[in-house]
Amino acid sequence: MRARRRPRPHRTRSVRLRVPAGPAPQRHPARAERHRGERRGRDGRHLRAGGREQPAAPRGRAAGAGARAAGFALDAAGKSGTTNDLRDAWFVGFTPELLAVVWVGFDDNQPLGLSGTTAALPIWTSFMARALSGHENQTFQAPDGVTFVEIDRDTGKLALPTCPRTTTEAFLTGTEPQELCELHR
Known about the structure:
Elements: E1 14-17, E2 26-29, H1 62-69, E3 77-82, E4 88-94, E5 99-105, H2 116-119, H3 121-131, E6 146-152, E7 166-172
Antiparallel strand pairs: 1-2, 3-4, 4-5, 6-7
């Protein structure tokens, strides 16, 4: 039986970009860059929403921290993903102005061995930083009927000033918790 050779990654020669309300598509030469980063969790995180960090899961802020560490400071939200066997990695992220999706993987379904935050997020961050360079930060606007409430992370109830771990959560108006945290009274 012959051993299969691992395909060689290839480099994209250019990226065509059209920024909303901007000029006609422009050509941007692609550069191969080496990205180093600490090991991070596999599921994605919101980067920032309305100027506040909003974790998608209580395990951390892997994608947001990675994007900020790479110099992307605009308000953005996103989700990373990785297949169970690390064959594919992706990151979908957006600002109020622009949405971009990055997928990284091999055409022959060979394992990539990298997560979405390790493989795709650095590419997304680099692209978005260039695409939106010179643009002022635009914050996300919550739609009508959405209320933001401070919640105690330990109980899921309304936070008191004495609660040590709180987070701001969005609720449809009228569905937000009504009970106060009893653990930290």
